[in-house]
Structures
1.
Amino acid sequence: MEINKNIIEALKNSKRVAIFIHINPDGDCLGSASALKEALVSLNKTVDIFSDSLVPENYLFIKHLNEVKHDDKVEGYDLLVAVDCPDAKRVGKYAKYFATHENTICIDHHKSRENYTKLTHVEIVSSAALMIYYYVKELTELNVHMAEAIYAGISSDTGCFIHSNTTSEEHAVCAKLINLGFDLTRANDMLFKFTPLSKFELTKRAYTNAEFFADGKIGMFKFTKKDLSETGADISDTTGLVNQITNVNGCEIGIMMYEQENGLFRCSLRSSGKIDVALIAEQFGGGGHMFASGCNVFGCLNTAKKKIVATCIKEVKKLG
Ligand SMILES: [Mn+2]
């Protein structure tokens, strides 16, 4: 992968850097932000990570993630960097700063996107963290904290190296990272096994109310706000659940719908390989990758469900 030299220059020339991640953060944006902060701190920069959402507990083992800021105001930074964010909306309440600040960078790996920064590097690869690996390596010498953070990012977005976006490059880079000596077992336990009881209870509900359409080619389940409050779960507990229904034999599209507020559902879409679910999400103003995407669907539960399922049925029919 070729890095963008202008981005390296901008990072080197900065003194105070603010890094932004997306709402409902995942291992990829969190690991990318942590590694970039550690690299810039090693170059004596002052760096803060800003997030509109809380950092899920199981990522707090990664350096700098217990220092993430949630302040409304972002002032006094000479450079803003967004990682893993295809459009300004993804940084949530901080979007306005990307509209006004003159020095902004985006490093991202999503296919559907908008241009919202002065300098942009988009590469259609498995993870933002894989891109960050090459940037960090150019900036400074990798240490164990950067290695652990980048590993967290790459392994998260590849579903622990099982999604179709996994290539030998992810394995090769992660082998080098592991050789830097972080606690691999702890990292994998925190990233892939960590299951609060609330998540287990939410999973039970999800799979109990799962439905299939189009002869089993579309699988879906949903959560209301009540499901979350009654199980004590939060949105981060839904991570990964949609993959399981997509894995059912014959299922081409997996859908997870959850209620964000009255009349607004967030849909996570997964493809088992034949259908480009980014194109489906785009029809609702969302986007993402070919095999994993997301969008907002408006309406009451039944209306929202009908809208997304009908759109998916159209795509499934094209398969013949
Ligand atoms: Mn990502």
Note: The longest strand covers residues 253-261.
2.
Amino acid sequence: MRWDNLRLDGEPAAAATPLFARGAIGRTFDTPEFRGVTFFELHARSIINRVPGASRVPFQWTINPYRGCTHACTYCFARKTHEYLDLDAGHDFDSKIVVKVNAAELVRKELAAPRWGGHPIAMGTNVDCYQRAEGRYRLMPGVIAALRDAANPFSILTKGSMILRDLDLLAEAAEVTDVGVSLSVGFTDEELWRSVEPGTPRPGRRLEVCAALRGRGLPCGVLMAPILPYLTDSPRALAGTVRQIAEAGATHVVPLVLHLRPGAREWFLTWLAREHPKLVPRYREMYGRGAYAPKAYQARITREVEELAARHGVGRSSPAAARRLRPPGPAPRAAAPEQLTLL
Ligand code: SF4
């Protein structure tokens, strides 16, 4: 494994990897939140990335200051990308985190380049930019400040409550450009959360973050993802989650059913076999032919969530007012998402 030659005591490694401008430094921190985690600090060559043309995502440019994610969601689609670094898509993805320490400096430089066209930039679309590492490395304040100073539109998708640390910066940026934030909250069952998303803030905390952002006047939606077949898709579970999303004052909710691409697939199905063995045949039937659940199932879940969103008033109220809203009967579709993402 090409990272094995890196010293873990803060000394620079002898050889640079071809992916990065300078050699890496491997570091560990003996604090409870980082126990068992190794950070590889690197100087990236570039930071604003163009999404490949074949991608089905509605954004063209991204910034990803980290690779790997200590949030450790079993279903994370980004797991496969760790293999490009010669790391594995399982435990390495959760515990060997690449940190592009020059991210903020590069963003400022690339935004100032004459060839840059001021396109909207999406963050948190590969791994979470507000994962625990951000508490130590503090890359995002510099990144947001650079975007603010260039009045460059951007969006952030996260499960991390640490985004509240940067609330003032986000509000400043929103005064000069379009800023969109989405929290990723697929369900609110806390027992399941501990098992399937063990490194993330609890779902209720994420919704509090949404409420705080809305309280500050920032747009904030919820990507209700992933919806896990037979685990979080009952009418009762969907209704409970959407009700809490409405109470948080989310501007919109976008449902997304679990998809299982290689990398995530093996890791998630191992978890499923351990925690819910009876469901394995049903998942095999559902995902036996590919990464996506059957279209009819996806359409039914989307319809149910949209109806619930309309009933609970998602997108129509402030956090406080949303708590009082329970309008019955038909209502318009949920507001269009500012950002449709992959998490
Ligand atoms: S789904 Fe998001 S928060 Fe979870 S491990 Fe992947 S990147 Fe991190």
Note: The domain at 49-65+103-324 is CATH 3.80.30.30 (pyruvate-formate lyase- activating enzyme).
3.
Amino acid sequence: MPLINWSENYSVSVKEIDSQHKKLVELINNLHEGMKHGKGKEILGGVLNELVNYTAYHFSFEEKLFDKYVYPETIHHKREHQKLVEKVKSFANDFNNGKTTVSIDVMNFLKDWLINHIQGSDKKYSEFFNSNGIY
Ligand SMILES: [Fe+2]
Ligand SMILES: [Fe+2]
């Protein structure tokens, strides 16, 4: 069973962003799967690296839309992105330096890290984007 099951409740009503969020869910699920099957450091590190890179790509995608449409919550939302990136990067660094390992606590942390942001800050832009003709 995957760690995160995509739910329509997670939809932010913008198709491209939903598909990017689904990709992030998939990466976290892959990491979880790798952990469960006792995959080595190399494989887990690779997925983690993919997660860090895709997160950066996804956040900058959202931020470009904020700038383009002058989204009122831009500053707050960008600050939250920055904190999230720092968290996942610092975990990836610790992992790469052998200071920590991928555990169920880490997996739950990543799950909350993503889902709380989607359900909180991301959902707040749905109406704004939809009213600007972005679906
Ligand atoms: Fe997002
Ligand atoms: Fe976001």
Note: The mean pLDDT is 97.
